[in-house]
Design brief:
This protein is of the alpha/beta class and 357 residues long. The chain has two domains: 190 residues, Rossmann fold; 132 residues, Phosphofructokinase domain (Rossmann fold), CATH 3.40.50. 40% of the residues lie in helices and 17% in strands. The chain binds 6-O-phosphono-beta-D-fructofuranose (F6P).
């Protein structure tokens, strides 16, 4: 008999349902009795006891379904130790609900913040298994996170669509790709979409270099230029500011996002017409791509295996094509960023992509 609690927390992505299905299928085929409790809206459901006993029917037909059947919400890790507006101790409330249901384990699907709280619950004595979800691919200790490949597909097709219209009008186009802290998604979608300039949070840009790359394309007879710009792209000047100063600057900025500022500065410097396209949350929407369906099925099955062996306190990672349990204490709180001198950046530069540095 196994009693499992499950929740999805933080920003959603395409393959959350596929991952939950993998876990439940793996368990139900190998245990006589299984009870799965789904907590609604992430940690909120665990804190406030908002859950439902799920049935096999809940996990049927969801491999291809985007979003999450449990719903999700952002519950910042840094506020977990702070009582809610009614004075409720959130950590104690989560422990209480876990114990009340006599759970063997909690399966927690989410990104970095979610993982930190999962580790906190582990430290508090709960059995947890974490599955690495995020379109940002920034979870340390796994080669890949689920949602990433599906988001690359969406962001790439946005760039593809912009390509044809940019070429018709001889325009400079910016496609803003998700990722405030890390640029994996922008890098992959940018390369896949044939972007000419890619701006990442990890490589602060010099607007003069970006303008020069646009002019260079004109000199080569190319009438249009495509930029893939991460939400968190930052100029060299801004990178010198403290976090607080930069936040203040953004608050006062007349631009809705960094891309619009890049566009305005580029127009000023090059005289070109610059348009901005923001695919935004479409990058997290729709069906998971086949790669993510396979990844989640494998991660889910591997999580089930750990639970069957009563092995807890791990993130199930994908490393060199193999699933691997990685102790949460080794990875929680660490970020996997794009190294500016990595091979992929080197190769992208080799074929002429500018990073504005
Ligand atoms: O962490 C995933 C992510 O999609 C980021 O790429 C993006 O910056 C952020 O979430 C958007 O958050 P929200 O859905 O809260 O607007």
């Amino acid at each position: 008999m196994k009693r499992i609690g499950m929740l999805t927390s933080g920003g959603d992505c395409q393959a959350l349902n596929a991952a939950m299905r993998g876990v439940v299928k793996g368990l139900s085929k190998n245990t006589d009795e299984l009870e799965v409790y789904g907590f609604y809206e992430g940690y909120k459901g665990l804190i406030y006891g908002n859950y439902r006993l799920l049935t096999p029917a809940d996990f049927s037909g969801i491999l291809t379904k985007g979003g999450t059947i449990l719903g999700t919400s952002r519950q910042p890790f840094k506020r977990m130790r702070i009582p809610d507006e009614n004075g409720l101790d959130k950590v104690e409330a989560m422990k209480k609900n876990y114990k009340k249901l006599r759970l063997d384990c909690l399966v927690i699907l989410g990104g970095n913040g979610t993982q930190k709280t999962a580790n906190l619950l582990r430290e508090e004595g709960l059995n947890v298994i974490h599955l690495p979800k995020t379109i940002d691919n920034d979870i340390y200790g796994t080669d890949i996170t689920f949602g990433f490949q599906s988001a690359i597909d969406v962001a790439t097709s946005a760039i593809d669509c912009i390509h044809t219209t940019a070429a018709s009008h001889n325009r400079v186009f910016i496609v803003e790709v998700m990722g405030h802290k890390v640029g994996w998604l922008t890098l992959y979608a940018g390369v896949a979409g044939g972007a000419d300039i890619i701006l990442l949070p990890e490589i602060p840009y010099d607007i003069d270099k970006v303008a020069e790359a646009v002019r260079q394309r004109s000199k080569e007879g190319k009438g249009f230029t495509i930029l893939a710009v991460a939400e968190g792209a930052i100029s060299k000047e801004d990178a010198k500011l403290t976090k607080k100063e930069y936040k203040e600057k953004l608050k006062k900025s007349p631009y809705p996002s960094v891309s619009y500022e890049v566009a305005a500065r580029l127009e000023e410097k090059t005289g070109c017409e610059v348009r901005v396209t923001v695919p935004g949350h479409t990058q997290r929407g729709g069906s998971p791509c086949p790669y993510d369906r396979v990844l989640c099925t494998r991660l889910g099955a591997a999580a089930a295996e750990l639970i069957l062996q009563n092995k807890y306190g791990y993130m199930v990672a994908m490393i060199n094509g193999n699933t691997k349990p990685v102790p949460l204490e080794e990875v929680a709180g660490k970020l996997k960023t794009v190294e500016p001198d990595c091979q992929m950046i080197h190769e992208a530069k080799l074929i002429g992509i500018s990073f504005g540095d």
